[in-house]
Every structure is written in structure tokens, then in C-alpha cells.
Amino acid sequence: MPAKSKAQQKAAGAALAAKRGETNVSELTGSSKEMYDSMSEKELEEFASTQRKGKPEKKGD
Description:
By secondary structure, this protein is mostly helical. It contains 3 helices and no strands. The chain has one domain (6-48). 51% of the residues lie in helices and 0% in strands. The two termini are 19 Å apart.
């Protein structure tokens, strides 16, 4: 399932970094914290690897 916006892709990247231990979980806020809690590393990889070209900044744009 690809990210629908650049914001989703960035949040997934932050959550993925925390899952891998590259950043502290305490640094996550908002959507990235929710993604960290509810998604597997594989799901986060799929979101984070989405191409940004042609994506809106936010889902509603």
C-alpha cells in the first residue's frame, strides 16, 4: 500500500527509523508515532519507499 502524500511518506520514514533503532521512539510525534505503534516494519518500508514525484504535500491537497 503506497503512501498517498509526501507527509505520509515522511511520517512512515520517521517511524521506520525508530523501529530499526536509528532514532528514539520518544522523538516521534503525531502520525509517525501512530504508525510506529500500529504498523509492521514491512508495512512502513512500503510506505516510506513510495515515489514522491506527483504526490501532494498532504493527503487532502
